[in-house]
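The following record pairs a protein chain with its ligand, acetamide.
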Amino acid sequence: MRIGIYQFAPVFGDREANLRRIESAVTEPVDLLVLPELCTTGYQFVDQKEVYSVAEEVPGGPTTRHLVKLARRINGAVVAGLAEKDDEKIYNTAVVVTPHGYIGKYRKLHLFFEEKEFFLPGNLPLRVWDIGPARIGVMICFDWIFPEVARILALQGADILCLPANLVLPYCQSAMVVRSIENRVFAVVANRIGTETRGGKQPLTFTGKSQVSSPKGNVLLQAPAEGEGFYTVDVDPSQARDKQITSRNHLFQDRRPEYYGLLAQEKAGG
Ligand code: ACM
């Protein structure tokens, strides 16, 4: 199957311009297209009112409708980050659509820095979607630093982890290679580029280097740190279903969850 990523710098607050850019950049069919976090709005909001003014319903809003048409044109699934409004509540969400329509959404569980002022933490269970050639799990940006997320998606049967991102720290690309190795899955990081300086705040520069890593930890594709581009790579998702590490080690059967209880305790750690 073919995976595509479009790395770009969204125009702040201009959904239609951003959707037009995505349309003109994605020039060939792919089975799975992953777009950055908040790819229709930009990232550095000044206040909650501003987020609210650009957030939209999922699946009822215009972006989901637009992405379904894009999915039909490219004949593949699309995972894209956007600001979601659900009554008065705002979430940092990724929508999942296929040529057959909307199939679901994921709301970012682990909010980064000022996102805590603008969004509510996600409240939907982690889950996997079957898009035909592969089963995909979705996480968003800072979720990378919580390995529990990737592990749960892998245990649920994800072949490919999709990570829409607006990264400002330099660690995620390396960490997602490790998430690939430790879960024997493909991982797709769709990051943005550019700098935003809004409302007199400290500038945020996004790190690009969108990438795809394989179950054995090979980096199959890495985009440059700067520069817009549509990138594709072919993968064999069945490689992610072989969890046999050696003839005597199975990634999941060798787990010792009876010793992992602390991971699921709410107040663990200091
Ligand atoms: C991030 O979670 N957008 C850094």
